[in-house]
Amino acid sequence: MKVGIVGKGGVGKTTVAAALAKALTDVGYEVLAVDADPDPDLAYSLGLPESPTPIVERHELVRERTGAEPGTTYGPVFKVNPRVSDLPDELAVRVVPGLRLLVVGSVENPGEGCFCPAAALARRLIRHVIADRDESVVVDTDAGLEHFGRRVLESVDWVVVVCEPSVKSMKNARESVRLAREMGIERVALVKNKWREDAPEPDLDVDFELTVPYSDKLVELEMEGRPVWEDPVVRKAGEELARRLTR
């Protein structure tokens, strides 16, 4: 089971990714949660006290695997398909039994560009864990739509689009569904997060929708550094999402 979590920034992708990863673990899956956000914080939603250094910021590793200095772009020649098969086992950290976290990060900062050694390593690694690893994978992507252009999710079993009841979020969700379908991803789900009863329905071409109401408890847990699944609302949503993705 390989799942990509997508959506506009701030809609709750990381919360959904953490809840789904834990729910899959609880029903017997070995799960690798991948944080592919340029501002990685999936570790905190999983209840870890700190986040590991993103792989794109491990400069010695980037240099070793690509043959080029991190931060360079088009000038030097570097390996665009570096060796990555050993990295999940070496660098993923254990969260709970059956669940590990791999913090990849994403190179989208000013001055870095999208075609640089660190970005090449990150893209190759994410594609590897999706296409070649045996365990289930849940990828918390960066905000927006760029991951579709980079095609890092093209081999996933499911794309889960997360949106909240706002015009901008639903516009992003609509584009995410369209791009996923155009990329050939057959199974797409929608999580309507922090939803209100009076919110308009997105009416998107998805296989199923899951509605998650706003929860004050989640804010409290995040302030205390506790895992998001300790919120009954979030835990129930993760369990239902896992059930529907795997049936």
Tell me about this structure.
The chain is of the alpha/beta class and 247 residues long. The protein is 37% helix and 18% strand. The chain has nine helices and eight strands. The protein has an eight-stranded mixed beta sheet, with helices on both faces. Helix 1 packs across helix 9 and helix 3 packs across helix 5. The N and C termini lie close together (11 Å). About 2% of the residues have low confidence.
Major sheet: 8 strands, mixed
Given helix and strand content, the structural type is alpha/beta
Number of strands: 8
| Sheet with the most strands: spatial strand order | 3-4-2-5-1-6-7-8
How much helical structure, as a percent, in the residues?
A: 25-40%
> What's the overall geometry?
globular
Radius of gyration: 17 Å
Head-to-tail CA distance between termini: 11 Å
Order of helices and strands: EHEHHHEEHEHEHEEHH
Q: What's the overall average pLDDT, rounded?
A: 90
